[in-house]
């Protein structure tokens, strides 16, 4: 058990650290991810964690890393940490192991040299290269020979001499987190920072309100020359993808300009936005990847845009690292900033993102735009965006003259797919039809006529004449050719210089340069630099873009036994939840859940999982429960909990060894309204026959007052009855009604039923528990598995099945999927019922008054 020591040292019900899952056996490690944490615990220190065999081998480094090869620092090997610790940043609660603030000081890719990581660890010599935000180049860990009180876990950590070595103290020069930009000393003051920025926004005149990012179309530029004179600021035009980033109490959402969700493609950006101080913030910027020379590279970024989303941060770090260059702040807290002058919005943005990490504020110049454009032209950069310093934020799609882009010319190769008839002296050939490939599709990109001299037309007609065909050879809508057009087979490649791409994906202001002899047409891949023109792009879904994404969830340790007596494994649990997902998901959708994890099976240690773990994939939704439910008796202990709305999310939590799933009676969109109340018949001190009789009494009462009850097994030994309320009562009022129904049951069964909360005072009676109804109160969901012998399932029943010889052990992960296929879900109408609560209350008053 690689994580056994880690788990033994931590109380999972109290710490906010990730628990993780045991990794599967794998081959030698040559490449992985690393993180360096700065941790202010009993004493300040750094922790180097490098991926080895599916976990993070961890070394406490009291003095931190150094880039000076002459400095060799002590590194004490500690317990292995779960891979989810890669992006853990937060304040570990007082009274728990390692209490204190911890920041992600650096992270990136580790590559092992000479020996695999496992062999190097065994030999006591680890040589590796780091590719991080701060640490780069070759490093070494060398185990010290035990002397005196040494334990054999002492190592020396040092930099090897290479181009990245330097004098000085990197930990003093770069003290900030690469996620949040905060120093470790500032982490506990996050709430104060958020409040200060929000208060300053209100003081500047910002209105109070909300700005749903999905409804914000990014502000767009007009095209023109770099403006002269004062009152303008100038930024580099980055060759990336435009992103609106939003953090709310439901998590983080990244959205492309097209409206498609980008969240799953950039987990490191999602995690960095989540680390920002405010509970709510809306950002505008570009996600950019850089080439080996440090220049923005859309070609490199393209591999991140439409590949299948990865489930964790380490893959993102190893594939193509990206940066979110933020240039505007649209909302913070409850303050909406769009009417604030640009320079003031940028000033507040700097306070939220004080240092460069995964998030960076895009720098600008006040004046000197012409010099910046000359620099772009000389260095083959895209160009300059000039913005009025006092401009408000004007959402698109209309373009605003307050933002002007000035682009340098581009040069690319296109395949010729036709030519048009011109006028006067150009009747032979007016313009060439050009195309390029997106994946296997050949797409029309526009026409070029400038630069075609008579000699060049002669050359082209000689090449194109034999290639004439009767139909278009490229996709897309061609521009009109009123004098005629000849289509040709796509075999001739030409060089073209042009200014930019239009919104329709066509080249603007092109100039013909010549034939590119010997070039394969399939190499013509030039396309607009946005997410809609990368191979694999599809039209955005009209609703819930993330729902349409193909998510592959990697299940680890499928053969790990969870129920030893039956031999049922984690794989069996995963397969069960996948099989019943269509029936189960309606009860979970938009409803906060509480989970219980059994990483070592039903007989091992278990713990409640209210808060979502660090390292959670961005496509798994979440919500802050403290903002979902407001109740004086619940205090201010906010919980960041799961929302399970798709089959992949069920697979994800099952892979975390979550066995039972508990749900609230209210939804995220209507936290003050309960959809149902619960009566729980607890038979621990009596028997199920008595509970059956009481449940049938409850049914008769419900029939009399105009309510409908839906029975289900508890999944253990008792019974539950859900009573549909149709979202007509508050959770507190629903609890009051549940108490009243419970009292009526006890009144009719005084010898076998009780509502006494103290176990010792109940006697041999069924406990009629109404405490599962109310603000923040949960009940096990229909079709949830329980950690009981036989892997029982909390199974909805028909009332005809609620009879004295009812046997809950019949309903297990083996039998319930087939039952659902055969008979359907008897509880399905629960969430659609709309009882007349005024009539119900009138009937109840009569019943109670008898």
Task: Please explain how this structure is put together.
Helices cover 20% and strands 29% of the residues. The protein has 850 residues and is of the alpha+beta class. The two termini are 63 Å apart.
How would you describe this structure in keywords?
about 850 residues, alpha+beta, 17 helices, 43 strands
Would you identify the regions where 5 or more consecutive residues have pLDDT less than 50?
535-549, 627-637
Distance between the termini: 63 Å
User: How many beta-strand runs?
Assistant: 43
Write down the overall mean pLDDT: 87
**If you compute it from the alpha carbons, what radius of gyration comes out, rounded to the nearest whole angstrom?**
32 Å
The neighbouring-strand order within the major sheet is 1-2-3-4-9-8-7-6
What form results from the Cα inertia axes?
globular
Describe the structure concisely.
The protein is of the alpha+beta class and 850 residues long. Helices cover 20% and strands 29% of the residues.
Sequence-ordered SSE layout with sheet pairings:
Elements: H1 4-8, E1 31-40, E2 44-52, E3 55-61, E4 72-77, E5 90-92, E6 100-113, H2 117-123, E7 125-132, E8 136-143, E9 154-159, H3 170-173, H4 190-203, E10 220-223, E11 232-236, E12 241-248, E13 251-256, H5 267-274, E14 281-288, H6 298-305, H7 313-319, E15 323-332, E16 335-336, H8 342-352, E17 359-361, E18 365-366, H9 369-378, E19 383-388, E20 399-407, E21 410-420, E22 431-438, E23 441-448, H10 454-464, E24 468-469, E25 485-488, E26 493-498, E27 500-501, E28 507-508, E29 511-515, E30 561-563, E31 568-569, H11 570-588, E32 593-597, E33 607-609, E34 621-624, H12 625-628, E35 640-643, H13 647-655, E36 658-664, E37 666-667, E38 670-682, H14 688-705, E39 709-713, E40 719-729, H15 731-748, E41 753-754, E42 766-769, E43 778-780, H16 816-823, H17 837-849
Parallel strand pairs: 10-20, 15-17, 41-42
Antiparallel strand pairs: 1-2, 1-6, 2-3, 3-4, 4-9, 5-6, 6-7, 7-8, 8-9, 11-18, 11-19, 12-13, 12-14, 14-15, 15-16, 19-20, 21-22, 21-25, 21-26, 22-23, 24-25, 26-29, 27-28, 30-31, 32-33, 32-36, 34-35, 36-43, 37-38, 38-40, 38-42, 39-40
Helix pairs in contact: 11-13, 14-15
